[in-house]
Amino acid sequence: MTIYVGNLSYRATEADLKAVFADYGEVKRVVLPTERETGRMRGFAFVEMLEDAQEDAAITELDGAEWMGRQVRVNRAKPRGDNGRDDSRRGSWSRKQDY
User: Fold this and answer.
1) What does the pLDDT average to over 47-75?
2) Burial of residue 20 (number of CB atoms within 10 Å: 0-12, 13-18, 19+)
3) pTM value?
């Protein structure tokens, strides 16, 4: 499982995230996506921990917590491409015109 951490301060670093999540277990990996053009952090991160139970504990404790002046969102990351839309209906709508 991968943890999504949203609404991060743009000052947060990989080391900062490792330190916070280390309270819940061993951190395997932290990814801080950046904008391609500017290199600026995008305000979210992904964290992977050694065990699912550690990730569950971190999510429970950290979701909604204030960190670096912001209330962070912490939850299970959705698989890439899963944005909550029903893609089976994409392009199947039509617009009725009343003239």
Assistant:
1) 97
2) buried
3) 0.78
